[in-house]
Amino acid sequence: xxxxxxxxxxxxxxxxxxxxxxxxxxxxxxxxxxxxxxxxxxxxxxxxxxxxxxxxxxxxxxxxxxxxxxxxxxxxxxxxxxxxxxxxxxxxxxxxxxxxxxxxxxxxxxxxxxxxxxxxxxxxxxxxxxxxxxxxxxxxxxxxxxx
Length: 147
Hints:
alpha+beta; Aminopeptidase; 5-stranded mixed β-sheet; 5 helices
């Protein structure tokens, strides 16, 4: 097996179809189109982990450039886990963010210890989401109930 390399989007283009394949493998974001992913890549800080030309790990971050950054969509293909690759991706994307005051991320409860070891601390804040897709469905359901 060849060595895995971790590169930023600027160092090595991350093709949207490869991101989509990784998302599909991880069971994430089936609704995201290739165009959506391409747009996302162009407006995020992104890091890919490569086994030659195969994307096997990924993370992206959004930021205001000074106060806050949010790490999103960090994942490693299951065939490549438990090799330190997740930590390498986390370290690389954090380095790319530079001196941002606060870097946040959301994770599943089973990953809290992993992120603690990388220097993150859990908070008591409640995460709330508002999805435009959910709002449309809810409005549609309301209309159906009236008829």
